[in-house]
Design goal:
The structure holds 2 protein chains of 2 kinds.
Chain A: H1 16-41, E1 46-47, H2 49-52, E2 54-61, H3 67-76, E3 83-86, E4 92-98, H4 104-109, H5 113-128, E5 133-141, H6 143-171, H7 174-198, E6 201-202, H8 204-234, H9 240-250, H10 252-272, H11 278-297, H12 299-309, H13 322-326, H14 333-345
Parallel strand pairs in A: 1-6
Antiparallel strand pairs in A: 2-4, 2-5, 3-4
Chain B: H1 4-22, E1 25-32, E2 38-45, E3 49-50, H2 52-55, E4 57-64, H3 74-92, E5 98-102, E6 106-112, H4 117-125, E7 130-134, H5 140-154, H6 169-181, H7 186-199, H8 210-225, H9 232-237, E8 247-249, E9 255-259, H10 263-271, H11 273-277, E10 283-294, E11 297-306, E12 311-312, E13 316-324, E14 328-335, H12 337-349, E15 355-359, E16 362-363, E17 377-381, H13 387-399, E18 406-414, H14 416-469, E19 473-474, H15 476-505, H16 510-542, H17 545-580
Parallel strand pairs in B: 3-19
Antiparallel strand pairs in B: 1-2, 4-6, 4-18, 5-6, 7-12, 7-15, 8-9, 9-11, 10-11, 13-14, 14-17, 15-16
Classes of the chains: A alpha+beta, B alpha+beta.
Chain lengths: 346, 588
Amino acid sequence: MLRIFHNTTYDFIRPWRIMVAITVAFIAIGLVLLGVSWARTGHAVHYSIDFTGGTSVELHFDRAPDVGTLRSALDGGGVRDANITSFGSDRDFTIRAQGTGTNAAAEAQAPSAERVAARIDTILAQRFGKGAYHIVRTDAVGPRVGSELQRNAVFAILISFLMTLGYLWVRFDWRFGVAAVIATGHDILTTLAFIKLLDLEVSLTVVAAILTVIGYSLNDTIIIFDRVREDLRRKRKESLYATLNRAINETLPRSVMTHATAFAATLALLFFAGEVIRPFAWVMAFGIVTGTFSSVYVAGPVLLWIERRWPREGRQPERSGGAKAKAPPAATGAATRSPRAAAVRH
Amino acid sequence: MLNLRYRLAIIAVLVAVSIWALLPRSTVQRVDTGSGVARYDTVRQVPIRRGLDLEGGMHLTLEVDQSKGAVANMSDAIDRALKVIRTRIDQFGVSEPVVQKEGTDRIVVELPGVQDQQRAYDIVKEAAFLQMEIVDKTQALDKAIPHIDALLKAKGVTGAAPAAAPGATPPANAGVQSLFSNAPADTTKKGADTAKAKRGPAAAARSGHGASAAADHPGRADSAKDSTRQDTTALASLTGGPFSRLVQQGQMPGEFYVAESDVPTVTRYLSMPEVRAQLPPGKVIRWSNDTASIGQRPYRAFYVLDQRPIITGEYIVDAQPASDPIEGTKVDFRLSREGGRRFLAETSRHVQDYMAIVLDSVVMGRPPVIQSAISTNGQITMGGRDLQAAQDLALVLRAGALPVPLKVAEVRQIGASLGQDSVHAGVRAGVIAILLVVTIMLVYYRFSGLLAVGGLALYLLYTLAALAGFDAVLTLPGLAGFVLSIGIAVDANVLIFERIREELDHRKTPRTAIDEGFHHAMSAIVDSNVTTVLTAAILYQFGTGSVKGFAVTLIAGILASMVTSIFVVRTFYMIWLARVRAPQTISI
């Protein structure tokens, strides 16, 4: 039987201060960068036109064109401030013209996004000839749709937060729920910092990746917490610190294996699935790392801290748990939740 | 615990159903031949629908345009608009189009394989809201022009209009001159148009387009010479202010010409609420679809019209494209009997007036004069546009007008080759991911790993079958999600195997260890998967098109992985246990 990390007794939790310091520093760097670019450009990250509204045209030229000519043709044709990037080769280009902003008058005057796409085509046909290139892909998003997608993305992340908190609340003890959600919040922040550091374009797909990271990281936290719950029931004398460490060590082989397979699939996406999926794969790859990290070094310390602030009485297993004992005897399940909620808000 | 035989039977049934769901089957598809005529074709393919990002095609989001007034009954209007667009697209001939409502005021249209962007817009977006409106003859705008000039001056708009190119001024004046000499007096004009109307026997909604209007000039100028009744003073006053500088009066009352380069400026002026307020109520200004060359410069006309249409397109029962050697391409339309009655009543009241044919707020060609009462037959000349334009216009007129104006809120168009490339790249990544995962599982778990790989094979089968069975759409992010789920799918197996190893460490027999392992790993598997399904469900709720595809694939993958790891792999173990009887060791 081939075994790795079998019967380990690492004291994972001990260096939690250093780990928390590292991750806080990482997040701080990310937030500073986000803040700086928000102050300078009005956008914290590089949003794709999914969110800003605007037009993006992907072109393939039969022969490599001169980028300067391309730019001057577009400028001359009235498509100003277009962002021209090449990808894959010097014959593949993406032309992006972002939305004009919120000025209502300007918006009424500005050509609609779909007109911009048509105009880009006309300009290029004039400058390079109709057969010299072909349009591989066009995306044109109106400003209203863009801002709505933006709102939906934020909504989705918030609601998944609340729903998982609710689920964990029902299945575990509120302490676990709060710890898991804080760990998840940490993952979102580090992922944002990562996106900023790599200057990835935030598109709908990247938001999907962030949500998947949330799910994945929770999954990992739950595996450890599930073991903590079980060990708490079995070994009531042990401190939570020791139980947590034991649970992490016990689930270590599983964690290593699971992350290995998930990471293998992500690497396959990163290197072989093409340009469009790459930002998704980057976020996913980082998410696996940060999710694993936070399950141990964020969820764990937070759980310990909560335990110190609101110790469960008599170290009982949480199912017939401390919080319930506090509630009036006649209270129903629903009613017991409100005093707990009050406790969280303190 | 279920009997082994039953378990095997259930797995066999699942496999059979999955294979059946995935069998390539022949479907009859409509294929666009490019001319707007659909051809039916039989295609044999695996019944997994591919999203536009893999298939290539166009995705349009249409939004109710409320910029020109709020829509009263939105849900009813959007439902009717949906029906109209569906009818149009069916006639357009696209295989498996998607037309569906999104939210309260949007319609999503997906046209797989469609690459002609402009044509697709025309078909889908053209409101085809046809109205016949009488051209104003009360000189409503002429009277308002001094006020508009004063108003614009007060607002700080000087004679040198910002949007007008400096070079535009002298030719614009030349335009005034030429129009001037053309003597746009009432009498001459009527003569000219009468002559023109006589050419067509049906003489219903005949619209002289720009080109023919220009061609009419010489003759008109001749007859104008003997006409002395010229409103020179009115015209002279048109040349002073910021607004009147750009606008030349046309040959019929209520017709005005603007140099093409000044059109945006004039549009801007006319859209100002204060300027609009200068126009008497019940009058409306609409641009023409055609340009006319006066001198060397293109001019565009706008018309002051009675806002109340004498008839609208809802009475159209048929419309056919036609082509005529003299008038070019045109669309003949026929009104219903009730429409004919109304039209007759209105036109008999407006004999000798000009009638503008307004399609989607744009005047089609020059308004013809109403010679006599007209009932059910009419025509729209296309002003030099080709037969396909006439075909498309006839199509949208037949399918009916959109009950509300729509605008394009989002367009996504993916070339077919890009989609194909994405599929290849995705499949390649998937194969590599499978190889990696299989290797890891076999090296680490040996025999049990093999069982897990067997489970993984069934997992792939079930997931694909679920996608086919629920008619889900496989998108590029969905494909990525699928590849990712291959890596995550074995997680449940890993949890179980590790648990079994622990039980074995506690000196349990393989049989008990397996039972206990499955039993204890269950809560962790369920909890962790439920949270992932929850986030995926939220993603489905809030995501659009391709992201929805991702969410669906993820959910299908998680369900399939739970079935395979908990049920199928367990059954494999049971088979093994049944064959080996009392194993002392287990390869895990």
